[in-house]
Design goal:
6-stranded mixed beta sheet, alpha/beta
Amino acid sequence: MPVIWTDKPEMHAAFITREIEKMGSRFMSVTNQEESTDALKALDNNRKIASDYLKKPNIGLCMGKQVHSARIAYVRRPGVIENTDGLVTDKPGLAIGVLVADCAAVLIADPVNKIVAAVHAGWRGAIEGILSEAILQMEKIGAEPDLMHVYVSPCISRQSFEVGNEVAAQFPERYVDRSWEKPHVDLRGFILQELKKAGVSLESLIQEDKCTMTHPETLHSFRRDGAESGRMLAVVVLSD
């Protein structure tokens, strides 16, 4: 359950894995809640876990109802944002978070201009340009790509990410491995290239190379566990 950027007092961030469940907690998805009150209950449950884990009492939390899109929302208050897979804020004390299980969570922070983003980067959102959109929205409120630090969470690996030809055709061929019976896609490699194209220095990047499919003791995987799969939370908050 790594805490990220511990040398930067301007922000607090973490990728909280399923080990949190051993302490009696479990993240709840706000994505497919039928009732708004259920989504808010899930949000508050996640807020309490994140607040305890980050040792930041009474933080607010904002999350999106994730739909595998490239939509980014600028936020300054707690709540649930409809049809959104990435959040950007410059509001101190407001945590923003995304839930993942096989998709990558990408946290982006400019500690100088004090602007952060949390992005749910599945293959659909990545192909549609969610990472460049997040960085663009950060730039619009004063962030600079060459000052950005990036964290890329564990996600499904090339070896485990078997896809159909219709999915493989949407990726540049260099990210498609056709040595298998069905094509496999290097989602992580594509994400890193998208960040580089957007102007982020890979020297400021932290990436976790574990595959969600092959680490059941610490990582959730929807492909592995189906509807029984939980989620991991990636969260970042600017210091007050």
